Amino acid sequence: MQTPENNLKIVLAPGNLRRVHHIALNVRDMTASRHFYGTILGLHELIGAEIPATLKELVAAGKVANFITPDGTVLDLFWQPDLEPPNPDPEKAFTRANHLAFDIDSQLFDRALEVLHSNQIAIDSGPVTRATGRGIYFYDPDGFIIEIRCDPSMPTTKQ
Q1: Given 53, 97, 105, 153, which residue has the most CB atoms within 10 angstroms?
Q2: For residue 1, what pLDDT is reported?
Q3: How far apart, in whole angstroms, are the C-alpha atoms of residue 155 and residue 66?
């Protein structure tokens, strides 16, 4: 039987892909999304010389916003005003992405829950506790699922 692995001629070695470089999301309401990612989740919005040269015109036109996570991953938001909300029926929903997960220090997880609740952010599920840590799944303004999780095997930061 022919499998996809049988057809491979050249592959990247494990470890060649070092990290996530950026994540791009289509958003319907740029103002709400900038508030969500920048104010509520506390990500730094790129401004001025921080904006990638390839996106400067789009940012200036209000069609793109860029944020950076503490580990250096860039989150690009692309304004799509005609974007339809996802179908609530999982059998009918289609997306090429499942969710975006952010890691948080375990000492700050309960604070993250408080922030979500106080901002009336719609929760998908959780908080959940697993062997790999605690997590909560919630929605951004366009219905994309976001996870905040803490991994007990990671060292905590000093408060």
Answers
A1: 105
A2: 56
A3: 28
* pLDDT, tens digit (0-9, with 9 covering 90-100), for 139-156: 999 888 999 998 877 777
Backbone angles phi, psi at 91, to 5 degrees: -70, -25
* 58: amino acid identity, one letter: L
pTM reported for the whole predicted model:
0.72
* Of residues 16, 9, 36, 7, the one with CA closest to residue 100: 36
Is CATH 1.10.150.170 what the domain over 94-159 is classified as, yes or no? no
Pairing of strands 145-150, 44-45: unpaired
Same fold, 19-81 and 94-159: yes
What's the CATH code, domain 19-81? 3.10.180.10
Point out which residues pair with 138 in neighbouring strands.
Answer: 123, 146
pLDDT at 103: 87
Domain boundaries, the chain: 19-81, 94-159
